[in-house]
Amino acid sequence: METRRLGQSDLEISVMTLGGWMFGVDSWSNVNDDDSIRTIHTVIDAGITMVDTAMGYGGGYSESIIGKALQMKPGRLLISSKCSADPKQIPQQADAALSRLQVDCIDVYHVHYPSPRIPIAETIGAMSKLVDAGKIRYIGVSNFSVEQIEEGLKTARIECCQPPLNLFWRETEEAILPFCQKHQIGVICYSPLAQGLLTGKFRRREDIPDDIRSRNKLFKEGTFERCLEVLDFMQTIADKQGKSLTQVALNWVVRQPQVTSAIVGAQNPAELKHDVESFDWKLSPEELKMLGERGLQISRTMDFDTNMWGYKPS
Fold it and tell me: Domain 3-199+250-282: which topology?
C-alpha cells in the first residue's frame, strides 16, 4: 500500500489508517471483540502501518483490544491515540493508554477536542512534556480550528491534524487543509465514508442503525435524501471503474493533495480487505472534479457550528 510521510516527522504511514472507534463497542452495533482482533491482525498482513484509537472510545476499551491484539500477533503497527485537553489529566491519561495498549511509547498522541475553558498553551504544554518524557513521539490535534492550531504551534511542534473529511462534509477544505499544507502538518482525516452513508448500504431511513450514526447530521431528513441522489451519480463512476461506492469514496479522499491518510473503520476482516482495494487505483482528474462538485452541493447546506453529530465542546 502507498505510504506518505506524516508532516515533518520520520513516520511513513499508509494512505489507509485503521480506525479503532468500533473496537470501543459502546457506540456501535454488531461489533464483537473476536472480529475486532482478527481485523487488527489482518491489517498487519495488508500493509497498513497505523491504527487510530482514543481514550474516549469505550472508556479506553478500544485501546485495550488493540493492545491485546498486538500482543497476540507479532508485527509493528504505529499507534495513534487521543486524550482530553485538560493538562491536569493528560499525564494520567497517557500512562493509562500506555498500559492498555501495552507499549512504552505512543507514536502520535492527539488532543481529541480543544476546550474553550482551557488555554491552548496549557494543553499543548502538557503534551510537550510527554514528548520530553519519551511517552509519546509526536503531538497531534483533532477537531481544532486554524486559530487553535496556530496558538498551539507557539508552544510546541504539532505534527498531525485530524479533521473530518468526506465528499459530503467539506468544511476542512476552506482553511484547515491549506494551513496544514503551508506548515507541513500531516492530515489524517476521519469519517471518510460519512459513517457508512457513502457505502450505499443505507438506502432507506429504516436502514440507518440505531447507534451513533442516528445522530449524524448527514442522516437527517432532507439531507439524507439529497445524499442518495449523489450516490446514484457515484454509482455510474463506480460501475465504469469496476469498483464499489466505498472504494470510490475512499479513493476520492486520499487523492486530495493535502491528505496524508484516511481513517477507515472495519467490523471484520472481509470488510477490511474490501476497503484496502480502494487505494491501488486512481480516479481520473475529471471524475475527481465531478464528484467533488456534487458532494460540495451537500456540504454547502450543512451547519458547521457544531460537528457532524451536533456536538460542540463546552
Answer: TIM Barrel (3.20.20)
Is 57 known to be catalytic? Answer: yes
Q: What global pTM score does this model have? A: 0.94
DSSP for 39-65, written as a single string: HHHHHHHHT--EEE--TTTTTTHHHHH
Active site residue: 57, 61, 113, 138, which one? 57
C-beta of residue 134 within 8 angstroms of C-beta of residue 105: yes
Q: How far is CA 124 from its chain centroid?
A: 21
Q: Measure Cα distances from 111 to 87, 128, 138, 223, 237 in Å.
A: 10, 12, 11, 30, 37
- Domain residue ranges in the chain: 3-199+250-282
Beta bridge partners of residue 12, listed in sequence order: 5
Contact indicator for 264, 16 with CB cutoff of 8 Å:
yes
Burial 98-115 (b: 16+ CB within 10 A, else e): bebbebeebbbbbbbbbb
**pLDDT digit string, tens, across residues 205-221:** 878 877 778 788 898 88
Q: What CA–CA distance (Å, rounded) separates 264 from 273?
A: 12
Contact between 139 and 157 under an 8 Å Cβ cutoff? The reply is yes
Burial classification of residue 211, based on how many CB atoms lie within 10 Å of its CB (0-12 exposed, 13-18 middle, 19 or more buried)? middle
91 Cβ contact partners less than 8 Å away, ≥ 6 residues apart: 126, 129, 130
Distance CA 111, CA 258 (A): 21
Q: Tens digits of per-residue pLDDT, 178-200? A: 999 999 999 999 999 998 999 99
Residue 213 and residue 195 in contact, taking contact as beta carbons nearer than 8 Å: yes
